[in-house]
Design a protein that fits this description.
The chain has about 400 residues and is mainly beta. Among the domains are: about 140 residues, Lipocalin (Beta Barrel); about 120 residues, Beta Barrel (Lipocalin), CATH 2.40.128. Helices cover about 5% and strands about 45% of the residues. It has a four-stranded antiparallel sheet, with no helix packed on it. A four-stranded antiparallel sheet has the order 2-3-4-5, with no helix packed on it. A hairpin with a 2-residue loop joins strand 2 and strand 3. The longest helix has 17 residues. It is globular, with a radius of gyration of 20 Å. About 0% of the residues have low confidence.
Length: about 400
Amino acid sequence: MTRREALALSLALASTRAAASEPQDYPQWRGQHRDGSASAFAEPSIWPKTLTQRWKVEVGAGYATPLVVGDSIYCFTRRRGDEVMTALDASTGQELWHTSYAAPYAPLDAAAAHGAGPKATPAFHDGKLFTLGVSGVVAAFDASSGRLLWRTADPPEPALFGAASSPVAEASLVITHPGNYDPLTAFDLETGAVIWTAGEQGFFSAPIVADLAGTRQVITMIQQAVIGVSLADGRLLWRYPWSGGQGGITPIVNDDTIIVSSRGSGVAAFKPTNSQQPETVWETKEVSMYISNPVVVADTLFGLSHLARNQYFALDAKTGEVLWLGPPRQADNTAVVKAGNNLFLLNDDSELIVAEASRSSFKPFRSYIVADSATWAQPVIAGSRIFVEDVSSLTLWTLD
């Protein structure tokens, strides 16, 4: 069997495993489909005035989203000079295991306010956990025991502002921008060997995997473009010129178009074609996104624009028309999650807003305080559970 045939078989098996995953699992950045969806959200018949706190535990610092798989929750954090992967019982918060490795890191003065990470969310796949540390180190752990399976060498120079490209794992590969914002790199998930690389330097954006024009491909934002490459071999399929600026959102796939945004560049949608030059579908400069990632509900894009000192907005994902703009000065960052026709907006000041996914105006109808300190990590919403990570602790809230 050739390597290409082996990877094709692995892709088919991976699709079977994905279909068999538990509905409430939250196994990677932005959920099961990397699109900001909650996992099997159970909407209450009556929304409570307050949430019920089930447990709260100290886990360490960082902005990586926790993962929920079965009865376990996994946290990737920093404790003193180490990066630590911890497994907890999701029902009680009791620690099951933790594994660490030395990861000294001193952020530049310009990034000191955001701490020493880690910033990238792990990926769970095939019984393993894959991480990208703040300096650019990629590591793999056994999810049952916590055993460190492999780890890449420390880069000659750590990522200057901290690596933040949350890995994606599929078939026999785990894919990210490692090192000091290195090109898109696919590692063998069993050994850590590099299988292929593509494109140029990445930045503050995570790759996704999607089927477009009949090809399974990895889509990622690099510093001067958005590219699509073949999952099987890393071959460049298309390239869309786009300035990554100081970083941008995870690309969003809506039907056959891809939506991107980065600081100061506005928002654009484009359609990959059979040629290497995709065609632009629409562009707008009325809103622009940076580190707050949007969601699409019924062909409507909801997010937080960094313009006007950060305001919520909605735009038509088919045309780019801005449908409404909320009031300015809302939050430095908002983590957006969709669940049916509901939006959960976790602001960095620990306020969790629940709003209707409305095309006509901003319609919040519930607000909860869910932490005692800043909340930069994406919340995990699974069933009736809401897991919130603040500066150093993780809390389980429930909607009763």
